[in-house]
From TrEMBL:
TM regions (residue ranges): 9-29
Compartment annotation: Cell membrane
Family statement drawn from the similarity comment of this UniProt entry: Belongs to the YjiK family.
Keywords, in A-Z order: Cell membrane, Membrane, Transmembrane, Transmembrane helix
InterPro entries: 6-blade_b-propeller_TolB-like, YjiK/CarP
Name of the molecule in the record: SMP-30/Gluconolactonase/LRE-like region domain-containing protein
Any single GO CC term annotated in Swiss-Prot or TrEMBL for this entry: plasma membrane
């Protein structure tokens, strides 16, 4: 009688079945742990004014923005400024048609991750924490940016930046390591403030989001939901802070005390790699996503009004 090891074809089949069994078990466990809902409002007094089940518009962008990595509101309705993570160019984009309205070079090619503005001043964030500052001119196709250095470096991988009119600061979020990592803040992702008056970066986070708290909200158990922020924006109506993470495809809303008010899980089929988030002056929300081999997109969500007592 032939022994098992004398039958190499049979051994291969057994190994294949074991691997398949492990894979099926993993898929089953993963599916069983998926949350039953994708929208979680934590604060009973908070109304989340966007319906991700009904996106108002999703437009594909020019191929130059296949790797769109940052977003901020333009000067006019239905317009946003965007950058991509390889070239030192700023794009003004129509959010209805997806067309590029204007294009301006501000620096040489680097790894750019975020963009925001204060009036006509534009601030572009590099992955090492450097901020490139310049004044936007309607007819110019080439401007000179001034570089503002911070204490961040490549190990922090700064990806999100926005202007906060409440404090006249730039809010910056690192995707990876915190500025001063400790065992106590391993599950926290900090939001740092750069004071535009003093030109100084606060070395300690002013706000934060806890991946453990998000996990408790999403899974209902003491389990982390991994968050690596890729975008940040301030709601012009409530002044709450919206933090976007491409890892986990999640949007988290926090207040000025860093209390979570809402968690929204984004559909991977639409938001392949969401990295940009911005608000229009009227509160409409824009989210951009890289194409990952396809065209980059910008989605528009019209702000809803909270229901009245009569409703």
């Amino acid at each position: 009688m032939n022994k098992l090891w004398e039958k190499p074809n049979l051994i291969s089949i057994v190994i294949l079945l074991v691997v398949l069994g492990i894979g099926i078990t993993y898929v089953a466990v993963t599916v069983s742990q998926r949350p039953e809902t994708e929208s979680f409002t934590v604060d009973d007094d908070y109304f989340f004014p966007y319906n991700f089940d009904r996106l108002d518009r999703v437009v594909k962008l020019h191929s130059d923005l296949n790797e769109i990595s940052g977003l901020c509101a333009g000067f006019n309705p239905d317009e946003v400024f965007a950058i991509q993570d390889e070239e030192g160019e700023l794009f003004l984009v129509n959010t209805v048609t997806g067309e590029t309205i204007h294009q301006v070079r501000f620096d040489k090619n680097r790894d750019y991750e975020g963009v925001t503005r204060r009036g006509r001043e534009l601030f572009v964030l590099e992955t090492d924490g450097d901020i490139h500052r310049f004044t936007y001119q309607d007819s110019a196709t080439d401007v000179t940016a001034t570089k503002m250095e911070t204490d961040f470096s490549y190990r922090n991988d700064t990806e999100g930046i926005c202007y906060d009119s409440v404090t006249n600061t730039l809010l910056i979020v690192p995707k990876e390591q915190e500025l001063n990592p400790t065992a106590d803040n391993e599950s926290r992702r900090g939001v740092y403030t750069y004071d535009l008056t003093t030109g100084q970066l606060n070395p300690q986070p002013t706000y934060y989001v806890s991946s453990l708290e998000v996990g408790q909200i999403v899974f209902g158990s003491n389990r982390e939901y991994i968050i690596k922020p890729s975008g940040i924006a301030v709601d012009p109506i409530t002044r709450d802070i919206f933090i976007l993470s491409s890892v986990g495809n999640v949007l988290v809303v926090i207040d000025r005390d860093s209390q979570i008010k809402h968690v929204e899980l984004l559909e991977k089929s639409t938001f392949t790699q969401p990295e940009g988030i911005a608000f229009a002056a009227n509160g409409d929300l824009y989210i951009s996503s890289e194409g990952r081999g396809g065209r980059g997109i910008v989605a528009t969500l019209t702000r809803m009004q909270p229901p009245t007592n009569e409703q």
